[in-house]
Design a protein that fits this description.
This protein is mainly beta. The chain has a domain at 112-382: monomeric porin ompg (Porin), CATH 2.40.160.40. The protein is built from four helices and 18 strands. The protein has helices spanning 2-33, 36-43, 80-83, 93-104, and strands spanning 115-137, 140-165, 168-181, 186-191, 195-200, 213-219, 243-254, 257-268, 271-278, 281-287, 290-301, 306-318, 321-324, 329-330, 335-349, 352-361, 369-376, 385-386. Strands 1-2-3-5-6-7-8-11-12-15-16-17 form a twelve-stranded antiparallel beta barrel. A four-stranded antiparallel β-sheet has the order 9-10-13-14, with no helix packed on it. Mean pLDDT is 77; it is low at 1-8 and 10-91.
Amino acid sequence: MMRAQWMNKTLLAVSIQIFMVGGVYAADVKAQDVPEDSASATAFTQPDPNATAVQPEDPPAIEPAPVAPDQVTPAQPNSAAEALQKQEGDATQESNLQEVFTSNERQYSLIKRGEISTYYDIDYTYYRDSQLNLAIQDGSVAQLRVDEDATHTLTNTFTLQYGLRDNLTLSTSLPFVAKSDNLKDTTTAGLGDISFGARWEPFPLKAGRLPLILFGNVSTKTGDSPYEINPNKDLSTGKGYYSAGIGASTRKYIDPVVLFASVSANYGFKESGINQIRGNRIIDEFDPGISGGFAFGFAYSFNYDVSLTMSYQQSFNTESEFTYNTGETYKPADQTSATFSIALGVRVSPDTIVNGTLGIGLTEDAPDISLGLSFPLDIVGFAKKIRN
């Protein structure tokens, strides 16, 4: 009996709760769906006198109190990925890639008007060669010896760039060269050939069109000329003649890499009055001829701090000629040099990227190995400046 009464009381309580919840839900729906004008008109309608019962009015929907602006809770990230996303003010991926790329391949970029930038590059090259020492007497070989020659060259270059205009950048390079030759058992050090250059972008950047940068350079003969030394005992630090060159470069950003390519040509001016003894003859004139080349590659940024650049360069030299005091001429064979390079860029500060380069020679005339290190001089206090 008591169990039946308890079950009846329980069912009654559950029914009351369901009824109350349904009433609150109906009130909420009514407050949302009924227009304000209709609700006002209904509130002032006279009741029907013939009605048998009058239903009480539904309780008005209670709206939440407005929250002060300083009490609004900021939106939280939905996931850890959102929390790690780039915040406002961070460098975009493309701008970071462009900065990484131009820090190593400066001939593909310009600097702003009035801006000054300085760089220091140190490069090491290693040439290895086998020379045949042969003497023939009365039609037979009297002496045969193979000499292994190796030349080590260390070049320190200071480069200064100045933005004359937003689309025109001037530059100058000051090299200091140190050389060592195993076969000659000698070393030398001194100033190399100073050069001056300019980069010009004739057309403004436009969507859908590849950028074009034209460049030119003039190289002096301030280094020790190979035609003014004893070639059997001494080493040179320069090429020995003036030259001028022109070229063009372009680039293309394709997320997440940047592709680049360039072509160039160079003309060497003839040197006269050399008067250098070579064997039994004396060189009177030397015409360097025409040289040129091309390069292409890509740069990839792994993240904000590390990047990789891979490139292929090939150059050639043709039409060079020696003229001797006897009137005889000699034209050496055309030369071709090809190198594959890998450069790793590491950001050591928000504004400084250091690049290390490894080059591998692919032809006989190319250096067997070349190593390079490049960084802006603002790393030691020479910061960029803007002229007013």
